[in-house]
Amino acid sequence: MKEYFAHESAYIDEGCEIGAGTKIWHFSHIMPNCKIGEGCNIGQNVVISPQVILGNNVKVQNNVSIYTGVTCGDDVFLGPSMVFTNVINPRSAVNRKSEYAKTNVGNGASIGANATIVCGHDIGPFAFIGAGSVITKNVPAYALMVGNPARQMGWMSEFGSRLEFDEQGQAECKETGDRYLLNNNKVTKL
Questions:
Q1: Dihedrals φ, ψ of 175, to 5°?
Q2: Are 123 and 111 in contact (CB under 8 A)?
Q3: CA distance 107 to 128
Q4: What are phi and psi of 53, to 5 degrees?
C-alpha cells in the first residue's frame, strides 16, 4: 500500500522512492530511480528526470522541469515554470548524457517563477532566487539573487525576509527576531 498520493493522470516509473505524505498532481511524470522525500508537493505538468533527489517538504510548482544531476535538500521551493539545465553545450545531434553537470540546491532555498539554473552551479542553503533570474554561477547561502545574469542584491533570512546588516555585520529578521552575522561575505545564523 502506497503512502503517497498520485493523481490518476500522473506517470510514475518503476524504481522510484516516494516518501509518505507526498502529493503528485495532474500530468506529472516521475522518471526511474528518483528519490522524493516525505511531505513533498509535486504540481501539475512537472517532469522529474531519472536519478533526481528531492529532500523532505520540497514544493515543486506547476510546469517545472528537474533534470538528471539535480539534488534538492529539505524545504526547497521551486517556483512555477522554473527550469534546471544539465548540459552546458547541448546539440541535438550530439549525445552528451555522459556530460551531465550536477546542481545542488541547499536546504530552505527558494527559486522564483521562470528562473533558469544553468547546470553545474550550486544554490546555497536559504538562498533566494528572484523570479525570471538566470543563475550562471554558484550562489552563497542566504544570498538574494535577481536578474539575467543574476547578481547578488542582498541577503535573506531563513524566514524569507530581507536582512539589513549594521556596521558590526549583524542583522535581525524583522519577522522572527533571529540574528545573523555577515563576515567575509558569508552569512551565519547566530
A1: -100, -25
A2: yes
A3: 11
A4: -120, 125
Report the C-alpha gap between 78 and 20 in whole angstroms.
20
Cα angle: 36, vertex 38, 40; to 5 degrees: 70
Q: Is the peptide bond before 125 cis (omega within 30 degrees of 0)?
A: no
Which residue in the block uniquely carries the three cell numbers 535581525?
172
Is the pTM for the entire model greater than 0.90?
yes
Mean pLDDT by 10 residues, the chain (190 residues): 90 96 98 97 97 98 96 98 94 91 97 97 98 98 98 98 97 97 96
For residues 147 and 137, the answer to whether their CB atoms sit within 8 Å is: no
**Distance separating the N- and C-terminal Cα atoms of the chain:** 44
